[in-house]
Design goal:
The complex is a heterodimer.
Chain A: E1 2-3, E2 6-7, H1 11-15, E3 18-21, H2 33-43, H3 48-59, H4 77-89, E4 95-99, H5 107-120, E5 126-130, H6 134-140, E6 143-148, E7 155-161, H7 162-168, E8 172-177, H8 185-189, E9 194-200, E10 203-208, H9 215-224, E11 229-234, H10 239-252
Parallel strand pairs in A: 3-4, 4-5
Antiparallel strand pairs in A: 1-2, 6-7, 8-10, 8-11, 9-10
Helix pairs in contact in A: 2-3, 4-5, 7-10
Chain B: H1 3-16, H2 19-27, H3 29-44, H4 48-57, H5 67-83, H6 85-104, H7 108-112, H8 118-156, H9 164-189, H10 195-202, H11 206-217, H12 225-249, H13 252-258
Helix pairs in contact in B: 1-8, 3-5, 3-8, 5-8, 5-9, 5-11, 6-8, 6-9, 6-10, 8-9, 8-12, 9-10, 9-12
Classes of the chains: A alpha+beta, B mainly alpha.
Chain lengths: 253, 260
């Protein structure tokens, strides 16, 4: 197994390729913003001639450039967490570990931090986010690994795309029609394999006994009956519900 | 600049900016210098009739020289033991802050996630504790030496300090004791999560040295040069062994999982 092209046993070298954002920012309060970053940039081997430009590159977009001579201990919670992000990024690692990055932050700061993380994910790095905040996971992650605590430390319950986890367990579709959907409840409910149909404005929610395999029959029957179909979408359940269902399944197993 | 130097520079910067720590570091040398000067001054002014009794009490072999000057010399040597408490104790204050304090403030997590090795961390933090302790000890010594030489000038007509015993104490024993105090504190700090607890436990190492100084002061025993040479050798061996143990015990996983 390799991490950032290095054998997984080369712990010291791997640490140099990883940026870490901890739940608590863990800043040196008596040092100012610039001194905190300079220290870690030097530790991670950023050449001294490049440190000033790295500081500017990471402090400016995070809105900390004007505060670079302020002691870290005087910064607000959100600014501290942003400085911790800059610290994790200053050596521009290919892998970044983010541990509960918005824990304890007010909604405004949490959003700023989430935006900053979202911008990192577009830069071709591997971001690993560890969080109990499912909204955050849904917003920021493409793939998700769900761990369930066990006496042995933890068990991997799922490793999949976030979108797959959301849609995978519903086996339902959403059909958008022209006009009131309630008019088509009976037509749709007659199709074999359909277990329930609900109307919400111009949308029909159709559930099936065995996944969404009967969708073509439903569409065909609606079209034959004269319904004007605008769109057909798989009905995604809330990520939180998918997570809870999965954990309940694991608990029962 | 090596990673050890980078960490050392950061540690020293933090110490410089920590008013509380600086105050406690300087709190010890001031009374030490004052007490030592008062003691020498007392000997300078003991009535001549009592001087002989004092010499007999301390069983000091002064040969055929001047009794008072010999007694002043004796006390100056005794004060060296008192001064050695400084290089032993000051690193306890600094190291407890720098290791257990980092755990307390949760700054150790990013540090342990960096490419620093355990040996680099222990070495940098040790130097950051030993260097200020030595600087403060030397400043205190200069103040003591100037004070003693001024006090004793009318009698000796030459500087009495530094003599060979003080040079040995300052250049050999003080750094070794400083390193000893530091390494003990690093070991304790890697096992506890509270810097004050680390300080309190580690500060116990001062007791044997204080005891050794006290038994000499009350004339119970006189520990001569041979004892101090052996003491230095034992300290050097202990320092080497303790440093190796501290590096081994500075286990990242354990420190990260056992705090709190």
């Amino acid at each position: 197994m390799e991490v950032a092209g290095l054998p997984h046993t080369a712990a010291d070298a791997i640490r140099g390729q990883v940026g870490l954002l901890t739940e608590q920012p863990g800043l040196y309060d008596r040092l100012n913003v610039e001194e905190n970053l300079r220290f870690f940039a030097s530790l991670y081997g950023v050449p001294s001639g490049q440190i000033a430009s790295r500081l500017e590159r990471w402090l400016k977009p995070l809105g900390l450039w004007e505060h670079r001579f302020k002691r870290a201990g005087t910064l607000s919670k959100g600014m501290r967490q942003k400085l911790a992000i800059a610290r994790a990024m200053v050596h521009e690692p290919p892998i970044v570990l983010l541990d509960e990055p918005t824990s304890g932050l007010d909604p405004e700061s949490a959003r700023t931090v989430r935006d900053a993380i979202a911008s990192l994910s577009t830069q071709g790095r591997t971001l690993i986010l560890c969080s109990h905040n499912l909204y955050e996971v849904e917003q920021l992650c493409r793939r998700v690994a769900i761990l369930r605590p066990t006496e042995a430390g933890g068990k991997l319950v799922a490793l999949t795309e976030v979108s797959r986890l959301r849609s995978g367990s519903t086996g339902a579709v959403e059909i958008e029609l022209v006009g009131e959907a309630a008019a088509w409840l009976v037509t749709t409910g007659d199709v074999p394999g359909v277990t329930s149909v609900a109307a919400r404005g111009s949308t029909l929610e159709v559930r099936f006994s065995e996944g969404a395999v009967a969708t073509p029959e439903v569409i065909a029957k609606l079209a034959a009956a004269g319904a004007m179909i605008l769109a057909v979408r798989p009905l995604e359940q809330a990520f939180e519900q998918a997570y809870l269902d999965l954990m309940a399944e694991q608990g029962a197993a | 600049m090596s990673r050890t130097q980078i960490l050392l520079r950061k540690e020293l910067l933090e110490i410089r900016r920590s008013r509380g720590l600086l105050l406690s570091m300087f709190a010890l040398p001031i009374p030490m210098v004052a007490v030592a000067l008062v003691l020498v001054n007392l000997v300078m002014h003991v009535p001549s009739a009592d001087l002989g009794e004092l010499v007999r009490f301390y069983r000091v072999d002064l040969g055929s020289g001047d009794l008072r000057l010999g007694m002043v010399h004796f006390w100056i040597r005794e004060c060296a033991g008192l001064f050695l408490v400084m290089p032993l104790f000051i690193p306890v204050l600094i190291s407890a802050q720098s290791v257990a304090g980092e755990k307390e403030r949760r700054t150790i997590e990013p540090l342990l996630a960096s490419p620093l090795t355990a040996a680099e961390i222990v070495l940098a933090k040790s130097l950051a504790a030993v260097l200020p302790a030595m600087v403060i000890t030397l400043i205190a010594f200069v103040l003591f030496a100037v004070g003693v030489d001024l006090l004793a000038w009318p009698l000796a007509r030459r500087p009495l300090v530094p003599d060979e015993s003080w040079l040995f104490a300052l250049l050999v024993l003080a750094p070794l004791l400083s390193f000893f105090g530091n390494t003990i504190t690093v070991l304790v700090s890697s096992r506890v999560s509270d810097s004050r607890l680390a300080q309190q436990i580690s500060a116990l190492i001062v007791i044997p040295l204080l005891g050794m100084t006290a038994v000499q002061f009350v004339g119970f025993v006189f520990l001569g040069p041979a004892f101090y040479v052996l003491f230095g050798l034992a300290l050097a061996l202990a320092d080497g062994a303790l440093f190796a143990v501290a590096v081994r015990m500075f286990d990242r996983q354990r420190i990260l999982s056992r705090w709190g």
